[in-house]
C-alpha cells in the first residue's frame, strides 16, 4: 500500500510571538494536495498534533477543520499518535467514535499492541510515553529509561507480526544518532531519552516524529518527516515536506515531497542605513520572518521600532560587531557566577526547554545536590 508520512504539526505554535495558524492551514492544504495527487491509501501523523497540552480555542478549531476535510470529506484513513507536546488525555476524547470513520488515534501505550491492518501492512501506532508507563504495563521495576522500555515494547509488538504482511511502526521519540534543531525543546541528558536504531530493525518502515528536520536521521528503514513549517532560525535551510511510502511485496520505498512555506524564515545582514534604504528592502520579500544581523557599531535609538515599520515580521536582531554583544556576554558570566547550584540548574533547564521547572523537579534537584554535597564532604 501507499501512505503519506507527516508529523509535528504543532497547531497553535507561535514564532517569536507571531501567530502561525495561517501558515499551518496553508501547509496542510499542500499536504492534502500531495496526498490526492499521489493517490495514497492513508495518512500517517507521527505526533505533536498540537503545540501545547492545553491548546487555544483557535488552534482546536483549525485542527478540527483539518481532520474533517482530510478524513470525512476526502475519505483518507488517518493513523495518528499523540506526541510529547500533546495531552494524551484530551486527545483521547472521542477516540472510539473516530475509529468508525477510519481515524485511528492512539494516545496510550497499551493501544500500540493492537495493530491497524490495511491491505498488506500492519501499523503499530506507538504514542509518546514515559518509562513509568512501560514499567507499569509490563510490571517490571527495572525499566527506568526509554531504551529499556522500547526493548520490551518491540518484543511485544513482534508477537503480533503476521509473516505475510509488512510492518510499520509509527512513533515519536529521539533515535540515537539523530540531530536536533533549536525548536525541539525536550531536554535529554545522558541519552536517557534515546532509542538505539538497532531496536527498530524488525520493521519495514519507521515513521518518526519529534525532530523537525527530514535529514535528522538517515536510515534504510526509518525517517523523520520533519515539521511542515520552519519553527526556528536553525531550521532556516531545511526543506519541509512529507514522505510518500510504498510497502511493496519485495521492498519498501519512500520518496520526499517538498512543500513551499507561505512565509519563509530568512536572515539578512547589513548596516542600519542599508537595511532602511528603499532599494535594499524592496529587493527582498518583507512578508517573510526575518532575522537581522546588524553590522553597525554605534547605538541606534529606537532601532527595533524603526526596523519593524519596514519589516513587519522581525524575529530577532543580532549585533555582529557592536559593544552590546560583549557587554551582554560579560554580564551573563557575572550573573552565572552568583547563582546557587540549584538556581544554575533551573536556569539551564529554562534556556534549553523554554519552560520552568515544576515544583517536584525542584525538590528532586535539591535532594540530589544535597547527596552530592554530602558525598564530596565525606571524601
From TrEMBL:
Keywords: DNA recombination, DNA replication, Endonuclease, Exonuclease, Hydrolase, Nuclease. Gene3D superfamilies: 3.60.21.10. Coiled coil: none annotated. Pfam families: Metallophos (PF00149), SbcD_C (PF12320). GO terms for molecular function: 3'-5' exonuclease activity; endonuclease activity. SUPFAM superfamilies: Metallo-dependent phosphatases. Residues 1-212 form the Calcineurin-like phosphoesterase domain. GO terms for biological process: DNA recombination; DNA replication. Residues 262-352 form the Nuclease SbcCD subunit D C-terminal domain. CDD domains: MPP_Mre11_N. InterPro entries: Calcineurin-like_PHP, DNA_Repair-Maintenance_Comp, Metallo-depent_PP-like, Mre11_N, SbcD, SbcD_C. Belongs to the SbcD family. SbcCD cleaves DNA hairpin structures. These structures can inhibit DNA replication and are intermediates in certain DNA recombination reactions. The complex acts as a 3'->5' double strand exonuclease that can open hairpins. It also has a 5' single-strand endonuclease activity. Heterodimer of SbcC and SbcD. This is Nuclease SbcCD subunit D. The gene is sbcD.
Amino acid at each position: 500500500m501507499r501512505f503519506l508520512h507527516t508529523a509535528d504539526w504543532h497547531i497553535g505554535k507561535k514564532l517569536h510571538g507571531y501567530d502561525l495558524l495561517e501558515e499551518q492551514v496553508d501547509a496542510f492544504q499542500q499536504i492534502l494536495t500531495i496526498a490526492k495527487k499521489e493517490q495514497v491509501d492513508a495518512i500517517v501523523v507521527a505526533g505533536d498534533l498540537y503545540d501545547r497540552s492545553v491548546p487555544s480555542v483557535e488552534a482546536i478549531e483549525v485542527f478540527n477543520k483539518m481532520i474533517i476535510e482530510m478524513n470525512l470529506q476526502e475519505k483518507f484513513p488517518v493513523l495518528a499518535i499523540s506526541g510529547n507536546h500533546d495531552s494524551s488525555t484530551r486527545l483521547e476524547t472521542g477516540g472510539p467514535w473516530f475509529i468508525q470513520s477510519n481515524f485511528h488515534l492512539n494516545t496510550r501505550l497499551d493501544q500500540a499492541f493492537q495493530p491497524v491492518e490495511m491491505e498488506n501492512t500492519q501499523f503499530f501506532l506507538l504514542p509518546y510515553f514515559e518509562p513509568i508507563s512501560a514499567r507499569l504495563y509490563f510490571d517490571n521495576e527495572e525499566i527506568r529509561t526509554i531504551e529499556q522500555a522500547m526493548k520490551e515494547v518491540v518484543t511485544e509488538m513482534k508477537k503480533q507480526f503476521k509473516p505475510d504482511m509488512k510492518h510499520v511502526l509509527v512513533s515519536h521519540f529521539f533515535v540515537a544518532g539523530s540531530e536536533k534543531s533549536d525548536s525541539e525543546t525536550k531536554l535529554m541528558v545522558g541519552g536517557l531519552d534515546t532509542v538505539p536504531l538497532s531496536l527498530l530493525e524488525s520493521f519495514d518502515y519507521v515513521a518518526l516524529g519529534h525532530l523537525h528536520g527530514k535529514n535528522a536521521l538517515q536510515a534504510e528503514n526509518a525517517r523523520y518527516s520533519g515539521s511542515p513549517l520552519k519553527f526556528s532560525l536553525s531550521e532556516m535551510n531545511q526543506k519541509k515536506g512529507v514522505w510518500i511510502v510504498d510497502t511493496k511485496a519485495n521492498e519498501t520505498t519512500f520518496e520526499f515531497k517538498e512543500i513551499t512555506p507561505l512565509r519563509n524564515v530568512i536572515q539578512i545582514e547589513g548596516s542600519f542605513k542599508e537595511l532602511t534604504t528603499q532599494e535594499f528592502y524592496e529587493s527582498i520579500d518583507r512578508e517573510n520572518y526575518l532575522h537581522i544581523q546588524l553590522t553597525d557599531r554605534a547605538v541606534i535609538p529606537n532601532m527595533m521600532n524603526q526596523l519593524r515599520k519596514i519589516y513587519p515580521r522581525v524575529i530577532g536582531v543580532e549585533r555582529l560587531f557592536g559593544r552590546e554583544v560583549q557587554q551582554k556576554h560579560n554580564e551573563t558570566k557575572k550573573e552565572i557566577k552568583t547563582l546557587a547550584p540549584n538556581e544554575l540548574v533551573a536556569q539551564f533547564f529554562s534556556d534549553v526547554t523554554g519552560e520552568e521547572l515544576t515544583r517536584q523537579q525542584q525538590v528532586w534537584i535539591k535532594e540530589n545536590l544535597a547527596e552530592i554535597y554530602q558525598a564530596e564532604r565525606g571524601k
